[in-house]
Amino acid sequence: MQLTTGLSQEIRRSIKNFHITIFRGEKIKTQPCHHFLSDQLYLIKKHSGDPIVDSSRPLIVFEGDETLQSLVSKWLMDNDEFKFSQIIKVDQIETCKQLMKKGIGIAVLPQSAISDLGEEGYDKNPLFVDGNPLTRETWITYSKESETLPQVKAFLSIQNLL
Fold first, then answer.
1. Contacts of 23 (CB under 8 A, 6+ apart)
2. What pTM value is reported for the model?
3. What percentage of the chain reaches a pLDDT higher than 70?
4. Fewest C-beta atoms under 10 Å: which of 26, 100, 107, 138?
5. Contact status, residue 91 vs residue 10, Cβ threshold 8 Å
């Protein structure tokens, strides 16, 4: 088996090149999609004693899938108290996290990226839209043709998808 990683939108564009695809964002309508995991989003900053929203600090955002960017933009528009005068855009989630850890700014990060930070030293604010937790969804899909391959069957069986 070969594993290829990348931005979900890039993976989605070349979906026909893969037997199994794990991606984030919206389901693909032309293939069977199975929910893999939900990853709650948090507004997080290094603890400084200041409130979570400190307009002197920039919001740090990483290049994620289009659905994630849309969710964060909607959340920002719906929450007037969270206004940032500056935004720093980076290409990797880890860069975003490290800048936040150095106290440079405030970041929106998924639970999976901050689980190693521990409870001390950071202010974490879970994000909600219309009373529901804001999550980044991850899906598994495969073509009907690849479902017959033994390695695909084994993977799907491990995931309880067969």
1. 8, 11, 12, 65, 138, 139, 141
2. 0.82
3. 93
4. 26
5. no
